Amino acid sequence: MRRGRITEGPSPAVPSEPAAPHTPTTLPSAAGPSNGPAALPTEFPFTLPRGYVDGKGNVHREGVMRLATARDELIPLKDQRVQENPAYLSVVLLGRLITRLGTLTDIHAGVVEEMFAADLAFLQRFYEKINTDGSALASTVCPNCRHEFQVDMGSRLGE
């Protein structure tokens, strides 16, 4: 199997590249305060509403998700499963970004696809929350009085 290519065949292709290696919890900032560099958090803990049940019947609820990179969002687009069913994109993406789930550290799309729908929906919202700037405010102007103000667009985009 050659890296970087998806082969065609009856069984789903394995992602063309493995999930990115475990990312450190923080990255130093280039312009930190004089008493030491500022840190950018790159990993965020979460608790699933239901929990992932592994093959032995153990329930895993506590986990950690890391920030996504542009590469994390691009690589799954090459995955044959995503090309055949675009809805599978979030499953592959989350499988790359969850670094720990309970005692499990080998998280992949196969684990994510076995999660309860409520947990998948939670993880999709959590992904959106940590990978945006955290602001849902939009600046606008009243068409009548020209007063400028900000409107809270809510925390769930697309609703």
Structural overview:
The chain has 159 residues and is an alpha+beta fold. It has helices at 70-74, 80-84, 89-97, 109-112, 117-130; strands spanning 26-28, 39-41, 43-53, 59-66, 98-101, 137-141, 148-152.
How is this structure best summarized?
The protein has 159 residues and is α+β, with helices and mostly antiparallel strands. It is built from 5 helices and 7 strands, in the order ββββαααβααββ. A 3-stranded antiparallel beta sheet has the order 3-4-5. Strands 1-2 form a two-stranded antiparallel sheet. Strands 6-7 form a two-stranded antiparallel ribbon.
- Spatially, the strands of the biggest sheet line up as 3-4-5
Find the structural class using helix and strand composition.
alpha+beta
SSE string: EEEEHHHEHHEE
| Quaternary structure | single chain
End-to-end separation in angstroms reads 42 Å
| Shape verdict | extended
Number of helices: 5
Rounded average pLDDT: 77
- Strand residue content: 15-25%
Total number of strands:
7
- How does the major sheet shape up? 3 strands, antiparallel
Could you estimate the helical fraction of the residues in percent? 10-25%
The gyration radius over C-alpha positions equals: 19 Å
Low-confidence stretches: 1-34, 155-159
Kindly list the characteristics that best describe this protein.
159 residues; alpha+beta; three-stranded antiparallel beta sheet; 5 helices
SSE diagram, text form:
Layout: E1 26-28, E2 39-41, E3 43-53, E4 59-66, H1 70-74, H2 80-84, H3 89-97, E5 98-101, H4 109-112, H5 117-130, E6 137-141, E7 148-152
Antiparallel strand pairs: 1-2, 3-4, 4-5, 6-7
